[in-house]
Design a protein that fits this description.
The protein has six helices and eight strands. The chain is of the alpha/beta class. The longest helix is centred in the middle third of the chain and has 11 residues.
Length: 194
C-alpha cells in the first residue's frame, strides 16, 4: 500500500528543465561507496537521472551505463529495465529510485533478471523522513523494506553525516532511525542461468 497520503507526481512526467531543477547529487555518497566495490565490474545504473553516478562508477574503473525514463544527461539512455537482456550486467544499481516506482516488487524482479551477480539499491527510511517527497509513491519502514525484499540480503544503513561510515546489519531494527538504507542482493543462478 502506498504510504504517500496524497497524489504522487512522477518525475518522468516533468519537462527536462523541471527535472534539471530538482536537487542533484543526493546519492553521491552511495555512488562513491559503490565505486570502490564495483571497480572491475559492469554496472547498469537504473534511474540514472543526470548520469553523474555513471561518471563516478566509470572513474573508478567500472564499465557503467545508465538509463532513465526521463534522461537528464548525455550518459543516460531513455529506456526501462525491461529493455535490457537477462544477465547483461554484473551489477544493477538503483539509488533512491525504488520509492518512485509504481510496481516496486516487479522492478526488483527485473533488476535481478538483468544482473549476473547482484543488485544494490538504496531508499530513504520512513522512520527518519516520513512521506515528505511529493515524487515518492511510497517510503519504507525497516519492516516494510525487509518484507519487500523477502530473501537473504545484506542491509546497510547511512546517517545524514557523510563523515560517518555506512554500517552493515544482518537485519534492520524496526525502530531504526538511519536516514537511508542500502540493500545488497546476490543473484544465485542454477546451471541453466535461471
Amino acid at each position: 500500500m502506498p504510504r504517500n497520503p496524497g497524489f504522487a507526481a512522477h518525475m518522468h512526467e516533468l519537462t527536462l528543465a523541471e527535472r534539471l531543477a530538482q536537487p542533484d547529487r543526493c546519492q553521491e555518497r552511495w555512488y562513491r561507496w559503490l565505486a570502490e566495490q564495483l571497480s572491475a565490474c559492469s554496472a547498469l545504473d537504473a534511474g540514472a537521472g543526470t548520469g553523474y553516478g555513471v561518471e563516478i562508477l566509470r572513474a573508478a574503473g567500472a564499465e557503467a551505463e545508465g538509463f532513465d525514463l526521463l534522461p537528464a544527461g548525455p550518459l543516460v539512455q531513455q529506456a526501462r529495465i525491461e529493455d535490457y537482456p537477462a544477465q547483461s550486467f554484473d551489477w544493477v544499481v538503483a539509488l533512491d529510485v525504488l520509492e518512485h516506482v509504481e510496481d516496486d516488487a516487479g522492478f526488483l524482479v527485473q533488476m535481478r533478471r538483468a544482473a549476473r551477480f547482484g543488485v544494490f539499491f538504496s531508499t530513504p527510511n520512513w522512520n527518519q523522513w516520513g512521506s515528505q517527497n511529493p515524487y515518492h509513491i511510497r517510503d519504507y519502514t525497516p519492516e516494510e523494506l525487509m518484507g519487500l525484499v523477502g530473501q537473504p540480503a545484506v542491509y546497510w544503513s547511512a546517517t545524514m553525516n557523510p563523515a560517518w561510515p555506512m554500517r552493515s546489519a544482518g537485519a534492520l531494527a524496526y525502530d531504526d532511525l538511519s536516514a537511508y538504507f542500502g540493500v545488497e542482493l546476490s543473484v544465485f543462478r542454477g546451471r541453466s542461468g535461471e
